[in-house]
Amino acid sequence: MSLNVSPDLLSAAEQGEIDEQDFVRTIRESLPYAWDTVSRVATELGNGTAEFADNQIPPPDETARGQLLRALASNSIRGGLEKHFGVRLAFQNCHRVAAFPAHAEMSDSYQEFVSPRSQLLNQSPLLRNC
Fold first, then answer.
1. Which domain holds residue 20?
2. What is the longest distance spanned by two Cα atoms in the chain?
3. Is 21 contained in some domain?
4. Residue 2 falls within a domain, yes or no?
5. Would you place residue 74 in the very low, low, confident or very high pLDDT band (cuts 50, 70, 90)?
6. How many CA atoms lie within 13 A of 50 on its CB side?
7. Contact yes or no for 95/66 (Cβ under 8 A)
8. pTM score over 0.70
9. 17-49: burial string, b at 16+ Cβ within 10 Å, e else
């Protein structure tokens, strides 16, 4: 399961729309490693002058790796993180999370990061089965 959803939040979802902050809180509590990683790169982006900030450190274990994969593979979780932190996220391999300015889709740096060429250049035998 991707998220640990409280009975109250599940009941609210069954009845209609949910509060976005409740969803974000559930992400933070369910996927703490992914949350911390995204929070860190978003903060680095905001504090720096670079076009993007990224994480190049592999997760410490499979549980952490799984959290990143679940957070970034789900459109709603990823979208919730992007909206909360005010960034556009990109993802390579099993751990390279990058934060770009929110409307970066057309920037050269974003397009390069998400390109097939960059994906190929970031391959490593150590990450083959991640």
1. 7-127
2. 47
3. yes
4. no
5. very high
6. 15
7. no
8. yes
9. ebeeeebbebbbebbebbbebbeebbeebeeee
